[in-house]
Amino acid sequence: MKVISGYARPGRRGAWTVGAAAAVAATAVAGARAVDADSGWCRTLDKPAWQPPSWAFGVVWTPLYATIAWSAGRALSRARGRERTALAAGLAVNLGLNAAWNHLFFGRRSPRAGLLGTVALDLSNAQLVRQVARTDRPAAAALAPYTAWCLFATALNGSLVRRNRGRRRGPSR
C-alpha cells in the first residue's frame, strides 16, 4: 500500500518512537547516576527561596522525558534523508548535554561548570526545536515545556553561582 501523505508507515513510526524513548531513557539513567542532592556539599549550598524541593525535580523530569521521546520519535518518523540524519544528530547532542549537566554540577561539585552546561543545553534546545519544527510543528510545540524548564534551571543555576561565589568545591564524596 502506498503512503499518500509521504510520512512513514505506522509501523515505522512506532520504531522511531521506541528508539527515541530508549535514547531518552539512557540519558535519564546516565544523568541520574551523577545526582546526589542529599550530599553534604549540596545541602550546604546557599539556595534561593524559589528553588523547588529536591523531590520536585523527578516529578517534573519524568513527563518532560516522555515528551522529548514522543516529539523526537514523531519528528524522526516524518523526516527523510539528510534532514533525518541532522535531526538525529541534534537530538544526540541535546541528550548528551542534558545528561552532562548532572555530571558537571553534582559530579564536579561545581555550580559554575553546571551553569556553562545548562547554557549549552539551552542553545541546543533552541536548535532542536528549530530542527523539529521544520518536520513537524506539533512535535516542536511539545518541546516547549522542556525548553522552559531548562531555562528555569539556568536561572536557578545562575543564582546558585552568584550566591555561592568564592566557595570551594566540596569533597568528591
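The above is record 1. Record 2 follows with the same two-line structure.
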Amino acid sequence: MTRVWQWNRPVTVREVLEDLQQERSIAYTTVMTVMDNLHQKGWVRREVDGRAYRYTAVSTRAAYSAALMNEAWSRSDNPAAALVAFFGMMSAEQREALKDAMRIVQPDRSGTATADEPTAEAGREPGGEAAGEADREPGAQAGREPGAEAAGEPADGAAPDAGR
C-alpha cells in the first residue's frame, strides 16, 4: 500500500516488484499475491491493462490513518483516558497539527462556522457518516497498514524505513 499511496496513480505488480527489489530480494508471485489480497479486501481496485492489472488505492493514506485512530479510540472502555494518553504521546509538531485540525472542524461561539472553519456537520457525507468514514477500508486492523503483514512492510512509525 505504501507504494500505491506514494505514487498516487494506477500501478502494476511489475512496477511494485521492481521498486521493492531495489531494497531486497522478493518474488513476483509474492507481490502479485499481496496485491490480489488487497483487492479482495477492498483496499485497492484493479483494471485490466493488456495482460496485467493496474491497481489503484480505494482510499487515501490519511483516511486510512483516521479510520485506524477512530477504531482504536472507539474500542476503549474509557475513551477520555485513551485520548489523554494519546495526546501525552504526541510531539510538539503533532500537537500543533491537532490544533490546526481542530480550528478547521470546530465552529465559532455563535454555533456557525467561519469561512475557514466548516462545522462538523459540513464534514458529514450523505447518510450521516463523517468525512473519511465512508472511505474506511473493510477489515482494517488497528496498528496495521493494509498488506503490511503479507508484504513485510511495517505500519507507519513502526520502523525508520516504514515509508519505503
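The mean pLDDT is 75.
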